[in-house]
Here is the input.
Amino acid sequence: MPLLEVKLSGAPDAALAATVAATLSDLTARILRKDPKLTAVAITFVPREQWFVGGASLAAKNASSFALDILVVDGTNTKDEKAAYLEAVFAAMGGLLPDLDPESYILVREVKADAYGYGGRTQESRYVEKKLKAA
Here is the structure.
């Protein structure tokens, strides 16, 4: 049940937001093995005039950028999976955003299962419940 927070440079664009959300949900399911029914994506647009890389605005550089912060439970993905995810996300975003600046960021944030959850329950409690039902 990952939470993806995405910042995109540019003016708000509902079609682009929907495409980015679908693309990231698909990659998250395929590479990180996360249930797409429990994947949440929140997208914010930042004007290119207000996004700076190396002291210059993206508008001045005539570039685009993105920043992705994804929360997953600690230990549920390997280093290789996370590396593949970063590579695939950057490539996909390069196809969606014109003149993508290489200074675009992806953070896979791993959090403890007893400190993360949804619906008022931790992932740890869901794990324990699943194990007890299987026994």
